[in-house]
Each structure stands twice: as structure tokens, then as C-alpha cells.
């Protein structure tokens, strides 16, 4: 006998829908976005509604909800104002700083200073990147899609420059054991990779 909780999003409460979504789409990679404001303040915030969306040209997406008062988060404001952002991979040694960077800070405060992380320059964009992690993708804004009646912003960025520390590579590949990335689960929970499996396709070719 099945004992499913049956949910119709048309009538369910927002919090319940959120709990089902973030408990089911797991683990989620985290797009740690660094940006700079028009006033020159460096900003850093994590987004787990994040994925890769295109290879040629390379594109990634972030979904940036509005603040409870309806205003836009600093990251989205900065991306709209400057047309750029940098994606930093979150790795295990800095997972706590990543969480702390999501605390609400005042307009003039930088999460870099608040968390002790080091901003270093990008090559093609003005936004800084996080020195303490091994992979940074410099992105220019492709477009912001506003989804549904609440015009929920989905930011798509084109990756115009990649920095990959070879210390996290083996041959031509990024080596997951060396990278040691972090994923978001639900609630206040996060995870490392755990066990890794390998199973090739019949012809041995990648898909
Ligand atoms: C691991 C993690 C993932 C998050 N994912 C998202 C997300 O996908 N979308 C979102 O709007 N906020 C997300 N948040 C919350 C933002 O990081 C938070 O609102 C942050 O303060 C926004 O900063 P900003 O105003 O400087 O842009 C996440 C927080 C954490 C810790």
C-alpha cells in the first residue's frame, strides 16, 4: 500500500512546495556568484538553483529569488548593472565561509571582508573571483528570464573565460577527489561526494 503525500501546487502553501522541491532535487551544485556593484563594492553569494545550460557557447544559470520585501538581491542588481558575474566552485575547505556569505549584509558591506575570503582580479570582467577555490568562470549576462506570474528571475550567463587550477586535474579531466566539491541538500544540510561509481556506455564513447 502506498502512502503518498499528494500535492497540487495550485493550492499548496509556498513553503510546502519549496520543501518538496529542495528535498527532491538533491544534491544541488552551488553557484557561488561574485559580482561588483556600480559603487565598486565586491559581493559574493551562493545559489543552489544553479546549473549548466549550454556548451557552445558555454552558459550557466542561476535563479535569484527576490528578497521578502520584493526588492532584488545584491547579486541580481549587480548583474543587471554591470552585465557580468563570476561563478566560483564551492569546495569543502570553504563550505562554512560559503554559508556565511549568504547572511544578509548592508549595501556597502562586502561578503569578502565579512568572511575573510580573498578577492582576486578576473581577466575579462571587473567582478573579483575567490582566491581560495580552484575554479572560476567569468560570465557575461546573456539574459534574465522572468518566470511565472511572480516574474521569478532566472539569470543566464555566458562563460567567457575559465580558470581551472591544474592541482585539481588528472590528465585532461577535473578530478572529483581533488576538487572535493560541496552540494546543498535541504534545510541547513550540505554534502561532499561520498562514494563515486563508474560504468561506461557499451561503445565506450562519452554521451
Ligand atoms: C547553499 C545556499 C544556496 C542558496 N541558493 C539560493 C538560490 O538558488 N536562490 C536564491 O535566491 N537564494 C539562494 N540562497 C540565499 C542567498 O545566498 C542569500 O539570499 C544571499 O544573502 C543573497 O546575497 P546578495 O543579496 O548579496 O545577492 C542560498 C543560500 C545558500 C546558503
Index terms:
seven-stranded antiparallel beta sheet; alpha+beta; Pnp Oxidase, Chain A; three-stranded antiparallel beta sheet; 207 residues; binds flavin mononucleotide
* CATH homology superfamily name: Electron Transport, Fmn-binding Protein, Chain A
Q: What is the average per-residue confidence, as pLDDT, rounded to a whole number? A: 97
Rg on CA atoms, Å: 18 Å
Largest sheet: 7 strands, antiparallel
Counting copies of identical and different chains, the oligomeric state is single chain
Report the uncertain regions.
none
Q: What features would you describe in this structure?
A:
This protein has one domain (29-186): Electron Transport, Fmn-binding Protein, Chain A (Pnp Oxidase, Chain A, Roll). It has helices at residues 14-24, 74-82, 95-100, 111-115, 176-179, and strands spanning 28-29, 31-36, 42-47, 50-54, 59-63, 84-89, 119-121, 128-130, 135-147, 152-164, 169-170, 173-174, 183-184, 190-191. The mean pLDDT is 97. Strand 9 and strand 10 form a beta hairpin. It is 17% helix and 34% strand. The strands form four sheets. It has a seven-stranded antiparallel sheet, with helices on one face. A three-stranded antiparallel sheet has the order 1-13-14, with no helix packed on it. It is built from five helices and 14 strands. It has 207 residues and is an alpha+beta fold. The site of flavin mononucleotide has 17 residues, from strand 3 and helix 2.
